[in-house]
Specification:
Elements (H helix, E strand, L loop, with lengths): L8 H8 L8 E5 L7 H4 L8 E2 L2 E2 H11 L4 E6 L3 H8 L8 E6 L7 H6 L9 E5 L2 E3 L1 H8 L8 E6 L13 E5 L2 E6 L7 E9 L2 H11 L5 H10 L3 E5 L5 E3 L3 H14 L7 H18 L6 H19 L6 H15 L2 H8 L5 H30 L3 H27 L13 H13 L3 H28 L5 H4 L3
Parallel strand pairs: 1-4, 1-6, 4-5, 8-12
Antiparallel strand pairs: 2-3, 6-11, 7-13, 8-11, 9-10, 9-11
Protein name: Bifunctional IPC transferase and DIPP synthase
Organism: Candidatus Curtissbacteria bacterium RIFCSPLOWO2_01_FULL_41_18
Family: In the C-terminal section; belongs to the CDP-alcohol phosphatidyltransferase class-I family.
């Protein structure tokens, strides 16, 4: 089962316990979103839905995951509706203060300047219609700014936007912006709408607005002229500007595509993940939670046990198809958890445990069905070997990390992850070759166990592990 939130435990802790990430966030949400008006029908555009959440909820929850708990939101158009929806932030376990900008028809620099009295130290500046990967926000907060500098997160991948003409372009050199404008002809990055600013930005805004230059971009160009706008490359991480309905649909595709992980097995990348994200696209709009799916899968596995335990056609075909279906929907809980910011320590810990229960239920069903129709006791021994190998190979990696603090990786290892293991069982059931599938399963998994044992020996012998710890292996 896909870990709820897909992050490994150390990374999950890293996101939730960010040292030094104590900045407040300013979110600009004052404009009327004229380009979205055909579909908003009088609603605030940041309250438009995006995969189960409102756009502004994605901004807030993304910032929360990056360690931010205090927010100041500048409202204007439909400000009352926005304030009523978000409240004081208690439902998100954060604090929200609001500023109403009655001059919201002017450019966004006016809205930024309206929040001046709320910030005396460096702060994060976000747009209510720009969604992003929290890891980018974590990184930009950690930049050590000096001499009244500000920082802008940029994307050097020039194939990541839908409407190039309306996207603010940036020319970057040696980590600093040297030009910024929507009309730049020569550029090498896009403005993602994520900033870390020093209070100096308010002085720049005050001077600019007095001259009738009311846009935030103009003030950023002033900083550029002073050499004070640093940049942070987001390294291709997800972000999207939701100015139009087409932008929202484009962002949905990016989010769903982003659910695929490097740790996915071959079958997951090529097939399972495509089907699971298709299912998730619909589940995300319902009250169904990741934990509901996690509990539902073992229940479905029990029903599959009874199909497999028949040991004859057509029940074996139905059982085999159910095994593959379980393998596919196994990814939905993690996908929903990531999309709705519902990752949890309990879910990350419980998920692989439930995986093992599901595996044992399916293997037991296949073994009983085979034994019931053939009376071959050898299948019982093979079932025990398969279950043991399935549990051991994951236990080895987890235990090695606990003892040494290092991940058990090796060039000797080969891809036989859970997606392929489930496929072997499914094919064995559908073709009525249960014993053969158990033999293939057991041989390949035990081979991985041996290779990991060799890798563990090599890593410990290579050093860099305290003797006291390595002696426990």
């Amino acid at each position: 089962m896909d870990k709820l939130g897909i992050l490994k435990i150390p990374d999950f802790c890293y996101l939730k316990n960010i040292k030094g990430a104590i900045m407040k966030a300013l979110i600009i949400a004052a404009g009327n979103g004229t380009r979205m008006q055909p579909v908003t029908r009088g609603r605030h555009k940041s309250l438009m839905p995006l995969l189960g959440l409102k756009i502004i909820e994605r901004v807030i929850l993304g910032a929360k995951e990056a360690g931010i708990s205090e927010f100041v939101i500048v409202t204007g158009y439909k400000g009352k509706k926005l304030r009523e929806f978000l409240g004081n932030g208690a439902k998100y376990d954060i604090s929200i203060s609001f500023i109403q900008n009655n001059n919201w028809k002017k450019a966004n620099g006016i809205s930024t300047l309206a929040a001046q009295k709320h910030f005396r130290e460096n702060f994060v500046l976000l747009m209510s219609d720009h969604v992003f990967d929290p890891k980018t926000l974590i990184r930009i907060q950690r930049l050590k700014l000096k001499n009244n500098e500000c920082a802008l997160a940029i994307d050097k991948n020039l194939d990541t936007v839908l409407d190039v003409e309306d996207t603010t372009k940036v020319m970057v050199k040696d980590g600093h912006a040297i030009a910024l404008n929507k009309n730049l002809e020569v550029y090498n990055a896009y403005d993602t709408g994520m900033f870390v600013c020093s209070p100096y930005i308010f002085k720049v805004l005050a001077k600019s607005t007095k001259l009738g230059k009311n846009s935030l971009s103009h003030s950023m160009r002033v900083l550029i002229s002073e050499g004070k706008l640093r940049t942070l490359n987001n390294k291709g991480r997800l972000w999207a500007d939701c100015d139009t309905w087409e932008d929202i649909k484009f962002a949905e595709k990016k989010f769903l595509k982003n659910l695929s992980k490097p740790a996915d097995g071959i079958l997951s990348k090529k097939f399972n993940r495509k089907v699971s994200t298709f299912i998730t696209r619909f589940l995300i709009k319902t009250p169904i939670t990741p934990n509901m799916i996690s509990v539902f899968i073992p229940v479905l596995a029990i029903l599959t046990f009874f199909l497999l335990s028949k040991g004859t056609y057509p029940w074996l075909i139905f059982g085999g198809l159910m095994i593959q279906f379980l393998s596919i929907i196994d990814g939905c809980d993690g996908e929903i958890a990531r999309l709705k910011f519902m990752k949890s320590f309990l879910g990350a810990w419980l998920d692989p445990i439930l995986d093992r229960y599901v595996d044992m239920i399916l293997i037991a069903g296949m073994a009983y069905g085979y034994w019931n129709t053939t009376s071959n006791n050898f299948i019982l021994f093979m079932a025990i070997m398969v279950i043991f190998a399935d549990v051991l190979q994951d236990y080895m990696s987890a235990k090695f990390f606990i003892i040494t603090g290092k991940k058990l990786r090796s060039s000797l290892d080969f891809p036989f992850k859970r997606d392929l293991r489930m496929l072997v069982l499914a094919i064995g059931a559908i073709t009525s070759q249960v014993l053969v599938s158990f033999l293939v399963f057991a041989i390949l998994v035990n081979l991985k166990v041996v290779l990991r044992a060799v890798s563990a020996k090599r890593i410990t012998e290579a050093g860099n592990i305290p003797l006291k710890l390595s002696s426990k292996i």
